[in-house]
Amino acid sequence: MTQINISSSFCSIPIRVGIVGTGYAAKARAETLKADERSLLVTVAGHTPEKTEAFSQTFQVESAASWQQLVERKDLDLVIISTINRDHGAIALAALENNKHIIVEYPLSLDPTEAESLITLAKKKNKLLHVEHIELLGGLHNTIKESLSKIGKIFYARYVTINSKQPASQKWTYRYSLFGFPFVGALSRFHRFTDLFGQVDTVNCQSQFWYTEVDLYKACLCTAQLRFNNNVIGEVVYGKGETFWHSENTFTLYGEKGKLIFTPQQGQLLQGEKIQTIEVGARRGLFAKDTKMVIEYLLQGTPLYITPEASLYTLKVANLSQKSSHNSGKATKFK
């Protein structure tokens, strides 16, 4: 884990924070920061002046003209990056060069080489670089982990997330240059698998996009197969947009002693004719939980739930899926 030396990088109360971004995650973090006396939300920089001003008025904080101006402020301890994926790496680099601790929503960068260099720089600067992966904090993922032993040796797992949108969104998440290759931009789909099954041996991937103009699509579909070093075969299906007429979110695991099927609401254990319902914990408040854990880490050194190296590993796997997709789905070996 990329730990900081608390004695040399101690944050006094309140931790002074700037947020880059004005979307859902940024608002959830702002609400948490405003409610916690150990932190002080100072400033925000949004994608447009209008959104920045609206956010600053809602949370009664200063508005910055740009993220560059925000990270250069000497009165900030922590920068939270909750903006378009394309800019994550550049903002993190600038924040580290200005001696800030960092929270960044996944992915750390669209480029694994850049992500790796940022982790190295954070260690050199003795600064926290925390890549958010709230899927690991949620009730669904933790219930899956707790249930694995019930089905014996696992040999196949399939995770399907289809998000029907009628009509498709015109937001940045439907622009390849801003969101990245779908399995990179939606890194949590792969990260659930690497957290459950470990090291990857080979990756093969197919993708399809329905473009309405250059760099803007109305739907995408990506399917990938991951073979792990422990011989588990994982299949990931991710689709979104108006080509789909029904949404789906299902995680299915096959073991030698049974089968598990999970949705965000509940799970089932199937063993022959026996069906057992499994309760799934809540998934609300995860950005707040993540934010509080970082505050406690910076003040007390309390361990975090994920390392940037673990996120980087999954990013490298996702990058291989992108290469495989561009190579007509040819399997690519992880080195």
TrEMBL record:
Family annotation (InterPro entries): Gfo/Idh/MocA-like_OxRdtase_C, Gfo/Idh/MocA-like_OxRdtase_N, Gfo/Idh/MocA_Oxidoreductases, NAD(P)-bd_dom_sf
Signal peptide stretch: none
Cross-referenced Pfam families: GFO_IDH_MocA (PF01408), GFO_IDH_MocA_C (PF02894)
Domain (Gfo/Idh/MocA-like oxidoreductase N-terminal): residue spans on this chain: 15-133
This protein's name: Oxidoreductase-like
Similarity field: Belongs to the Gfo/Idh/MocA family.
Domain Gfo/Idh/MocA-like oxidoreductase C-terminal: 150-329
GO MF term set: nucleotide binding
